[in-house]
Amino acid sequence: MARLGISDRPSYRLHKPTGQAVVTLNGKDFYLGLHGTKQSRAAYDKLTGAWLANGRRIPDDPAQAPAIEVLTVVMLCAQYLRHAKAYYRKDGEPTNTVLSIKAAIRYLRDKFGCLAAEKFGPLALQALQQR
Question: Taking burial as the number of CB atoms within 10 A of a residue's CB, which of 1, 16, 86, 115 is the most buried?
């Protein structure tokens, strides 16, 4: 029986649209927090360790299961931009509304991208509007 080594673990990767670390286990993506941080590396180690110990399956025990993925502002922006590109079209081409949305999202992403979407409140919106 071969020993499991580091190379047997799924890749710790950068999810470019969100700036988060991600790992795919059994076809499902798990977001681990801001890419390159100690916290995201620790989450990766804990999650993949539990996965390997459970026979390369996501654990059924809720205490060992990965944390529920947090929807960040940048993830929400990426989803909305995909929607906008499909919705705001004229004669099969994106309208200028899409360019306006991209400009607003750029600032939103830079200032609040890693913030959990549920924590984006009135003060953050006011700061965005002033910009």
Answer: 115
